[in-house]
Amino acid sequence: MELSIKKLTKTYPNGVRALQGVDLTIPPGMFGLLGPNGAGKSSLMRTIATLQDPDAGSIRFGDIDVLTQKAELRKLLGYLPQEFGLYPNLSAEAVLEHFAVLKGITVRRERHAQVAALLEQTNLAAVRKKAVGGFSGGMKQRLGIAIALLGRPRLVIVDEPTAGLDPTERHRFLNLLGEIGDDVVVILSTHIVEDVAELCPNFAIIAGGRVLYTGAPEAVTATLRGKLWRRVSTRAELPDLQRRLKVISTRLITGRPVVHVHHEGSPGPDFEPVEPSLEDVYFHHVAQAQAEPAARPA
Ligand code: ADP
Asked: N or C: which end of the chain has fewer CB within 10 A?
């Protein structure tokens, strides 16, 4: 089943235009939704998860009209929000049992089997009797995904799940997402480019409530090939470079700023060509959107 989002708009009562005509088609498998803070990712996720209504637009998941058939969608949905609370004194197993009942898994044997399988899958079986109040950030996120996977959802939405995780836990969590299955639509929202590069055959870049790009990571990096140049700079000359050229990123490498510049042909004798990464593409699109907001269609 495919998720199809058309012309979705949302303006909050305070006047913030969080979604400004979002069009996206999301096939089964991992889909990365990449954007800076404030891009509109959570607004979009909450709308897909039927937790808030848009002002206009449509969302379909297979045959389901998400905005009018909320109960149907919820039966197929697993949602891991950015922040979620857990009763600290309950054990991981009790938490999962509790949510399984809420999900409508009323047959006890089936419920126990699913809870046990998910505890194994998320590597929490050994701590299943421990109170979740003592869990680390990574363990809480793994429990969160176990909750989201109860009831075998067809659409899984995880909102910035890797923020704040250490590298080991981050990899463990991403591997877990990667194993959910090719026939499930899994939407991973993140501001971390590597999350997408490592895991997602399809992705979109979103900023300012608009989709700036959608497609496969390899296809988008190809669009920058031959137009990306690199040079070791100095702090003193950086402002001048930024004024004269389209600097899309500056990174300190062993204390010295290394700039990546977008340019048709070499921008100067000290520059060398560089193979574009997804991070370059991301910075390029986001910088362009910020530079010329009025030029983009509303
Ligand atoms: P992201 O998840 O990409 O960080 P959000 O969807 O949370 O983006 O936010 C998009 C914009 O909408 C931001 O400017 C944010 O401040 C604003 N926003 C989000 N939720 C609300 C709300 N409930 N009321 C008013 N403004 C909101």
From this structure: C
Per-residue pLDDT of the chain (298 residues; tens, 9 = 90+): 999 999 999 999 999 999 999 999 999 999 999 999 999 999 999 999 999 999 999 999 999 999 999 999 999 999 999 888 888 999 999 999 999 999 999 999 999 999 999 999 999 999 999 999 999 999 999 999 999 999 999 999 999 998 888 889 999 899 999 999 889 999 999 988 988 988 899 999 999 999 999 999 988 888 889 999 999 999 899 999 999 999 998 999 888 999 999 999 999 889 999 999 999 999 988 888 777 654 444 4
Q: Does domain 3-216 fall into CATH 3.40.50.300?
A: yes
**Cα–Cα distances in angstroms (integers) from residue 185 to residues 155, 173, 237, 278, in the given order:** 5, 17, 47, 22
Instruction: State whether the beta carbon of 41 lies less than 6 angstroms from ligand 1.
Output: yes
Within 10 angstroms of residue 294's Cβ, the number of other Cβ atoms is 5
* Residue type at position 205: I
- Pocket flag, ligand 1, residue 18 (CB < 6 Å): yes
* Cα–ligand 1 centroid distance for 43 (angstroms): 6
Distance in angstroms (rounded) separating the CA atoms of residues 47 and 9: 10
> From the CB of 174, is ligand 1 less than 6 Å away?
no
The domain limits of the chain are 3-216, 222-295
Among 12, 22, 195, 210, which is best to mutate for testing ligand 1, by the most ligand atoms less than 8 A from CB? Answer: 12
Q: Please state the pTM of the whole predicted model.
A: 0.90
